[in-house]
Amino acid sequence: MKNQAEVRMRGFLRRTPVSELRLLIRKHCGMLNKEYVSLEQLGGRVLAERIISPENVPGFKRSAMDGYARRAEETFGATSYAPMEFRLLGEITPGSSFEGRVGTGEAVRIMTGGPVPEGADAVLMAEHAEEEEERISVLQPVPPGKH
């Protein structure tokens, strides 16, 4: 047990440079051969070449978290001591859409994967707001593009 503790406290006696490690890896690890398999057999495999999609998937801005779709600049200055209030217009779930537009002083509850509605440029994390009836209190600002 004493030797293990000494090694941990001192670190390694010799450190191998990254360039030398790369040579060792190339020497001892060969390239895998390419093989063509059906889509059903792809699980657990590594691509042999890069694939670049000709279009964005999904083709819309979507929320990466549960929260509230908002205009970011309207949240600047919000704190838990001085929260800002906004009217809640509705809710967006994955696979659904919101027909309206987020305007001044408004927000829309949004779930992970839901499309960010028109007029909103950020999603405030649910943990950074308090919801009561049809209003939310924003407890901290959110930067534009955060969703």
Automatic annotation (TrEMBL):
Q: Which Gene3D superfamilies match?
A: Molybdopterin biosynthesis moea protein, domain 3
Domain MoeA N-terminal and linker residues, every copy = 17-147
User: GO annotations under biological process?
Assistant: Mo-molybdopterin cofactor biosynthetic process
InterPro entries xrefs: MoeA-like, MoeA_linker/N, MoeA_linker/N_sf
One Pfam family per UniProt: MoeA_N
Q: GO cellular component annotations, sorted alphabetically? A: cytosol
Could you say which residues form the signal peptide? none
* GO MF, one annotated term: molybdopterin molybdotransferase activity
In Swiss-Prot or TrEMBL terms, this protein is called MoeA N-terminal and linker domain-containing protein
